[in-house]
Design a protein that fits this description.
Elements: H1 3-16, E1 29-34, E2 41-49, E3 52-61, H2 64-77, H3 82-86, H4 90-97, H5 103-126
Antiparallel strand pairs: 1-2, 2-3
This protein binds FE2/S2 (inorganic) cluster.
FE2/S2 (inorganic) cluster (FES) binds near residues 38, 63, 66, 108 and 111.
């Protein structure tokens, strides 16, 4: 199996059995973003305590890349401080997927990132 096949399998596993799936009853902030091209959605809810992500969950509907990306991103931000969240940029999310993606698939990969940015903005404006 090539590295690319192995990475594709990892992405597919996240799609089939997403990590951190659900909604948080006690979320500090919860936001939904959609891809305007296809209408696919990701909702992320964050529990923020002492300036860090104490818990995170997501729900969504859409293609394998968008949903796998949300699963991987929520794993990545669990326990991270808000400062550390700011260090996550588009490029690092695309790298996290680890597959060669065309421009429209990059938008799929970034749907969860855009949702996270919306959450951070909302949280900061509420402080
Ligand atoms: Fe809609 Fe991928 S096709 S987010």
């Amino acid at each position: 199996m090539s590295d690319n096949d192995m990475q594709a399998e990892i992405v597919l596993e996240h799609y089939r059995e997403p990590h951190n799936y659900g909604t948080l009853e006690n979320a500090t902030v919860s936001m939904t973003e959609s891809n305007p091209v296809c209408g696919d959605t990701v909702n992320i809810s964050l529990l923020i305590e002492d300036g860090a992500v104490k818990d995170v969950k997501f729900v969504g509907k859409g293609c394998s890349i968008s949903q796998a990306s949300a699963s991987m991103l929520t794993d990545r931000i669990m326990g991270k401080s808000l400062e550390e969240l700011k260090e996550i940029d588009e490029e690092s999310v695309i790298d996290m997927i680890g597959l060669k993606l065309g421009p429209s698939r990059e938008k799929c990969a970034l749907l969860s990132f855009n949702t996270l940015q919306k959450c951070i903005k909302e949280y900061q404006s509420s402080q």
